[in-house]
């Protein structure tokens, strides 16, 4: 009989955990669907901003706080919850988190006022703080060794599709039937994932975690990495949180054009993922610097040229291409410089991402009454330029062995070794 894996709760041998490759594959797709739901709900207020503001009689900056508060919660609790839940069974943990998501989605749809809606966002954020650090590892543990990297990639793809399909679809549905229907629809969609995972996920309990050192541990460089993430993500979200209002008020697009424009941005995001996957093996530092430069150019271009429709769309495409490259590079550098347990380091970088999201949304919201929405990309460019400066000032380490693992190698660290049954780390 297969031994249970200490983190995933699945077997450590090559056999699929869910009772067959077909069942295991279905469970992985259900996890990807859950990732899609979390990714969509996190960013949905961006597309629904004017609808929520009008219905609840609050300012656009107050709606931006729905993103800010969400990010702050994830940032604060990610690391503690990773430590607290490492011994919990993955099936009750993940299905419980998704049940909370469903209840909060319906509560958001029925929210009588802004305060209630804000509260549902904070509780949902608690669930996301647990979900991402464990879902990819759980997906990998469901599959045989030759398919585990692909399983992790499917879960990440669910999060990417949230930007490409989820937010544009939710925005379209909100404009057609009301923003509350968009949140309710996410609850129904997550219910499908919950039902599948309740049946297909293994129910074993975890019993420990094997820390694995990074390829070139360096506490100073890891701290700089955390700063880079906060600054670059913060610069991006200073503008992107309010992109709907920018496109309508500054660029002159109609409300009906917002969903197609967000879809264009999402397709560019997928293109950025593909490009990053091709070039990251040649050096994550160069990829991070190049992506940061693209984001600075796009944000400056949006400020300078965003009053015209065609340049605004072009800059929106550049934003979509630039951010995935930075994320991919930062993930690779975690595996290079993390000073201790790589899964705890991943929780720290996940927290840094959410500090950036929250801080950017807060900065942009503060600018709205002072300088108007057109100032948000200029401020975002300044913050992103600071991140680029930190990236360029951070000198690469002297070569001391094998190159930094590429994307495929990083994903392979998510699943246990066939020899010792340990987990090599986790991402997000």
TrEMBL record:
It comes from the Bacteria. Keywords: Cell membrane, Membrane, Transmembrane, Transmembrane helix. It holds the Pfam family MFS_1. Residues 27-398 form the Major facilitator superfamily (MFS) profile domain. The chain crosses the membrane at residues 21-41, 61-81, 93-111, 123-142, 154-173, 179-201, 222-243, 255-280, 287-306, 312-332, 344-368, 374-393. GO terms for cellular component: plasma membrane. This is MFS transporter, DHA1 family, inner membrane transport protein. The keyword Membrane applies. GO terms for molecular function: transmembrane transporter activity. InterPro entries: MFS, MFS_dom, MFS_Efflux_Transporters, MFS_trans_sf. It is a multi-pass membrane protein. It is found in: Cell membrane. Gene3D superfamilies: MFS general substrate transporter like domains.
């Amino acid at each position: 009989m297969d031994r249970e894996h200490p983190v995933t709760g699945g077997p450590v041998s090559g056999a699929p955990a869910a009772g067959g490759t077909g069942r295991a594959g279905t469970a992985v797709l259900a996890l990807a669907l859950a990732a899609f739901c979390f990714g969509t709900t996190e960013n949905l207020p961006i597309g629904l901003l004017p609808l929520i503001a009008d219905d609840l009689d609050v300012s656009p900056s107050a709606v931006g706080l729905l993103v800010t508060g969400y990010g702050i919660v994830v940032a604060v609790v990610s690391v503690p919850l990773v430590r607290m839940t490492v011994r919990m069974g993955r099936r009750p943990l993940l299905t419980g988190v998704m049940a909370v998501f469903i209840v909060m989605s319906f509560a958001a749809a029925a929210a009588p006022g802004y305060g209630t809606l804000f509260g549902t966002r904070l509780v949902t954020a608690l669930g996301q703080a647990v979900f991402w650090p464990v879902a990819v590892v759980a997906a990998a543990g469901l599959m045989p060794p030759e398919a585990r990297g692909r399983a992790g990639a499917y879960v990440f793809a669910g999060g990417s599709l949230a930007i490409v399909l989820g937010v544009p679809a939710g925005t379209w549905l909100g404009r057609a039937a009301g923003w509350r229907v968009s949140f309710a629809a996410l609850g129904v969609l997550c219910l499908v994932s919950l039902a599948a995972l309740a049946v297909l996920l293994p129910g074993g309990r975890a019993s420990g975690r094997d820390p694995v050192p990074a390829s070139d541990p360096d506490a100073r460089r890891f701290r700089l990495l955390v700063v880079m993430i906060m600054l670059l993500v913060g610069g991006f979200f200073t503008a992107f949180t309010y992109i709907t209002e920018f496109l309508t008020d500054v660029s002159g697009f109609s409300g009906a054009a917002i969903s197609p424009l967000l879809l264009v941005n999402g397709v560019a995001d997928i293109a950025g993922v593909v490009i990053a996957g091709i070039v990251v093996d040649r050096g994550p530092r160069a990829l991070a610097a190049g992506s940061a430069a693209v984001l600075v150019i796009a944000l400056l271009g949006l400020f300078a040229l965003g009053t015209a429709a065609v340049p605004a769309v072009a800059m929106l495409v550049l934003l979509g291409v630039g951010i995935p490259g930075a994320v991919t590079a930062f993930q690779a550098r975690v595996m290079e410089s993390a000073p201790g347990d790589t899964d705890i380091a991943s929780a720290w970088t996940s927290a840094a991402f959410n500090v950036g999201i929250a801080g950017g949304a807060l900065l942009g919201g503060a600018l709205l009454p002072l300088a108007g929405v057109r100032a948000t990309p200029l401020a975002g460019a300044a913050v992103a330029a600071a991140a680029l400066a930190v990236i360029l000032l951070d000198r690469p380490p002297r070569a001391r062995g094998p190159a930094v693992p590429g994307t495929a190698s990083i994903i392979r660290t998510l699943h246990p070794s066939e020899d010792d049954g340990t987990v090599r780390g986790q991402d997000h």
